[in-house]
Amino acid sequence: MMETGNDPRVWTRFTPAERIGRSIVYIVSAIAIVWSLQTVEIIPEFLYDAPEQTADLFARMWPFDLKFWPVVWSTLVETFHIATLGTILAILLALPLSFLAARNFTANPILRWIAQFIFVSSRSVNSLIWALLFVAIFGPGALAGVFSIAVRSIGFVGKLFGEALEEAHQGPIEALTATGAPRAAILLKGYWPQAEPAFWSVALLRWDINIRESAVLGLVGAGGIGVALDAALNNLYWDQVGLMLATIFAVVVVTEIVTSFVRSRII
Fold it and tell me: Tens digits of per-residue pLDDT, 164-196?
């Protein structure tokens, strides 16, 4: 804001309305923090010895029970299968919906709203909640994990790929339309070449995320390494828990490196 008159001009960063708005945000945030601290009900007795308990817990995890490795390996392979099959199923289901959600591809607002509603519904429910639902339907096992990963991923894949379709340049598409090309040719020659890098980037990113999520689905009975982890936790076999946690951490790091390398080669 600039003031004029006999005094020299003074510049301020925010207008009075902006300063009032920022002050309101600060006050509301402070109230929310204080309110949250009061409702969390922190027990000081547990908080004081938390460092000691943490050190004792990690001491129990070492050395790892390497004789348990065959079980870890078999459940880890199942975790990869759950993540991979769930990602593939999600892509197959999300691709048609992403074209329905793209404004430059689908003119009908009702179809676009239906696609967006499915995306929001998929993303709004955590994968563990989906896993509980599918365990109740299919029973415990990897099938429930595959469907929970797939349903959870539809919103992520569909929304990002639909946005990539909306960002496609209209020049090639208009040229194909002017030549009388069929709808399928416009899709394959006009939209797909422009959206293909985004497709592979989204697919690899979601697969990476799904490996992390599928590692814990077994805690609710949806298969994978989480089943063995839950059993070890319940039986207080901390050396087995340490082995599985180290394995999960190593797998997450390796998959992050692999997906980043593949994306750099494709895009």
Answer: 777 777 777 777 777 777 777 777 777 777 777
**What pLDDT, on a 0 to 100 scale, did the predictor assign at position 72?**
83
Domain contains 145: yes
The CA-based angle 144-231-206, given to 5 degrees, is 40
- Helices within 102-169 (DSSP H only): 109-124, 127-138, 142-166
Specify the number of domains making up the chain.
Answer: 1
- Which residues constitute the domain of residue 76? 67-266
Digit-coded pLDDT (tens) for 34-90: 888 777 777 766 667 777 777 877 887 788 878 888 888 888 888 888 888 999 999
The C-alpha atoms of residue 116 and residue 249 are separated, in whole angstroms, by 34
How much is the pLDDT for 260? 80
Cα distances (angstroms) measured from residue 218 to each of 80, 101, 152, 198, 221: 13, 33, 16, 31, 5
Helix residue ranges, H only, the chain = 16-40, 44-48, 50-61, 69-101, 109-124, 127-138, 142-166, 170-178, 183-186, 192-217, 225-234, 238-266
Looking up residue 250, the CATH number of its domain turns out to be 1.10.3720.10
Amino acid, single-letter form, for residue 160: L
Q: Which amino acid is it at 164?
A: A
